[in-house]
Specification:
The protein has 208 residues and is an alpha/beta fold. It contains seven helices and seven strands, in the order H-H-E-H-E-H-E-H-E-H-E-H-E-E.
């Protein structure tokens, strides 16, 4: 409920605490972060979507909730400039130590940051932000993402699926139709959902 109430002090402390082990957990096949190979599958989907983006070296990339910069390590070299936003300064400290090419890191929460009216060509988020923050906040987040995307810009996010009985009940679980309706309601005309029966995650790909 602290996520739903946007208790950013609590959220920051939670992710600060996890920063020291985050990279090792990402590399651990038995970690919940890699359940059903979900992290690798996100990277594969991201790579597939990026192949559709023309002239990437002239465009900008934003990672919402970038943590220690894993996604940015994977794709920042493809873009003219990349940005990582995270609420945790300890996560960002780990990310900055990697000296990722063409990348700027900013400490802020996603909601405030996206209201600054900067425009990006590609926005990614891997960390089930939608499920952490609940439906009402997720609609507002998608609305801000829509506004923050350049024309023809693309965003790729993930959420926990209602169709997986093993998913934690304390987080908001979405159906495919629910996410699609949310994306359409904020203005996205091109909406693709990637999911499978029983798989823990739904991947949302939208284009402005």
């Amino acid at each position: 409920i602290r996520y739903i109430n946007l208790d950013f002090e609590y959220i920051k402390a939670r992710w600060d605490f996890r920063a020291e082990r985050w990279d090792s957990d990402l590399c651990d096949a038995d970690s919940h972060l890699n359940r059903c190979g979900s992290y690798q599958r996100y990277l594969e989907l991201l790579d597939s979507v990026l192949k559709t983006v023309s002239a990437k070296n002239e465009k900008t990339f934003l990672d919402l909730g970038c943590g220690t910069g894993a996604l940015l390590e994977f794709c920042s070299k493809m873009f003219r400039k990349s940005y990582g936003i995270d609420i945790s300064d300890k996560m960002l400290q780990k990310a900055r130590e990697k000296q990722i090419l063409n990348t700027e890191f900013i400490q802020d929460d996603c909601f405030h940051f996206l209201k600054q009216k900067q425009v990006f060509d590609f926005i990614a988020s891997r960390g089930v932000l939608l499920s952490h923050y609940g439906k009402k906040n997720s609609v507002n987040l998608l609305k801000s993402i829509y506004i923050s995307l350049a024309n023809d810009g693309i965003a790729l996010l993930d959420a926990l699926s209602k169709d997986c009985p093993e998913n934690p009940k304390e987080k908001y679980l979405f159906s495919v139709d629910e996410i699609k309706d949310m994306a359409n309601s904020v203005g996205f005309q091109k909406v693709s959902l990637h999911s499978e029966d029983g798989y823990p995650l739904i991947y949302l790909e939208v284009q402005k």
